[in-house]
Write a structure and sequence with these properties.
Organism: Haloferax elongans ATCC BAA-1513
Protein name: Mandelate racemase/muconate lactonizing family protein / galactonate dehydratase
Radius of gyration: 20 Å
Structural class: alpha/beta
CATH superfamily of the largest domain: Enolase-like C-terminal domain
CATH class of the largest domain: Alpha Beta
Keywords: Lyase, Magnesium, Metal-binding
Pfam families: MR_MLE_C, MR_MLE_N
Shape: globular
Strand order of the largest sheet: 5-6-7-8-9-10-11
Helix content: 25-40%
CATH topology of the largest domain: TIM Barrel
Number of helices: 12
Strand content: 5-15%
Domain Mandelate racemase/muconate lactonizing enzyme C-terminal: 126-231
Largest sheet: 7 strands, parallel
Number of domains: 2
Number of strands: 15
Length: 383
Amino acid sequence: MEITGYDLYELPPRWLFLKIETDEGLVGWGEPIVEGRAKTVKTAVSEMLDGYLVGEDPLRIEDHWQALYRSGFYRGGPILMSAIAGIDQALWDIKGKYYDAPVYELLGGKSRDKIRVYQWVGGDRPADVVEEANRLVETGYTALKMDATNQTRHIETAASIERVVDRIRKVREAVDDTVDIGVDFRGRVSKSMAKTLTNRLADLDLMFVEEPVLPENVEHLPAIADQSPVPIATGERLYSRWDFKELFRGGAVDLIQPVVSHAGGISEMAKLATMAEAFDVGVAPNCPLGPIALAASLQVDTYIPNLVVQDHGFDIHSPDLGPAYDYLEDPNVFNFDDGYLDTLDDPGLGITIDEETIESRSQAHVEWQNPTWRNEDGSITDW
């Protein structure tokens, strides 16, 4: 069997899908994307497929991964690793279909029968987030995540700090204590404010604080962890085992959060989970993306023993609320019940793409960009 061609589709709201074709009629799907950089990643995927992969045997996944990563003098980073990630997902999809088995069986089989998931709580005002948190809990979620802050200055006022703490506290008080709450800092605060805020949040029994500092400032995580009992999570903006290596050695991180469409795909995410297990670290994959990425992440989740909880980027509990289900032939494949998703047990990634809808929607103009934030004085701040 050999790879004969491929197609790339830019799709609303901000997704990029890859279809790899073979001479035996088997097709694999992947989701190579950096949010806001779809065209850049699209070019990288085309370069890798045209320059190396077309004409090759799709079943030699590890060999292809090594070739795509190591044959370039410049390696790693969000663009190249996301391109590899989408290709890797599509190759696993083909291999699963070839052997008539879900990907998790090829990785080593099930470590669990269902996968706990959390949903993001939207809103900026305390009343808004409390209302949304209650709605999600009523829907069946047992874990939630919310932003800690919007834009912040290097050192914030006591009033600003109190507003942040009050907003999170109100959600903690509003929901049952069986509901876990993660708080995402998104690297928006300085190390100084990270220490202050994690200390102030220490009595709220949070599941984790995510990205208390930017990934380029992870050397400060041990100091933050030393003065806070809240588990530290990070890794959404790290892209390979080499990026995570020093993070593990530092000993401050309790959960890693790789994204299957950024951190090298299914192959690399499974290896990251094994590394994490050796350092007594859990895995809570981020996935603010589409249905192919979620399916790929769930395949790894089913296999790895140290999964804690899975993020997802669209409303799995209500197909009417998002476009993801329009791209699937079976809109019920993501079966959500009491805070858990069922494992995906069909061959490959376990989903079937509606190619007619993909073709139609790919004609739309998609130009998603994240906003640029500025402080009151006009200076740029982190989004």
